[in-house]
TrEMBL record:
The lineage of its organism: Eukaryota, Fungi, Dikarya, Ascomycota, Pezizomycotina. GO terms for molecular function: phosphatase activity. Gene3D superfamilies: Phosphoglycerate mutase-like (3.40.50.1240). SMART domains: PGAM. This is Phosphoglycerate mutase. InterPro entries: His_Pase_superF_clade-1, His_PPase_superfam, PGM_Phosphatase. It comes from the Eukaryota. GO terms for cellular component: cytoplasm.
Amino acid sequence: MPPVVILIRHAQALHNKGINQCQTLANQLEADFPHATEGCRIVVSPLSRTLQTVQHSLGWLLDRGVPVVARAEWQEDTANPCDVGADRSELEKDWPGYDFSQLDPVYPQKIGLYGPEEKTIRERAAVARKWLAEQTDKCLVVVTHSGFLNRVVQGPRYRNVEYRTYKIERNDSGEVELVELAEQSKDIPGREE
């Protein structure tokens, strides 16, 4: 059975507002998913804001041994300097305990599947959905970016630290789709876009 997927948009930068957003998110997630440690894994875009959001909002999962894996397909969808990440060696030095072994060797270059063209971004979103469907975890908590989330779920824009919960299904064409479990999705109060 495919995992339940919790998609989270990162918090604002690490200043008071971003830290407060992360604390609010942590409290909400821990209350809503107290057993999320069993058979779960955290998947994160290898960019600073997403890594920081994991550190400051999912510490309760990290403390319980939930592993973190960085995947290049979850990075932001532009080639703007703020959306281009660091080399794997830097990431491993700065984020010990996170698994960067699954990063595509071309990362952080914005080429091929990671290019900023709309067609390419949609292809990458399909690859990300397919990857989710192939996982055997009970749940996957994914921390990523608003622009890319829009392509993955083909739905409304996420705001900072908003999360939505999905089940994985295949449509009539056999393509992977994420179907929102609305009762488990939250728009965190007190945060902005």
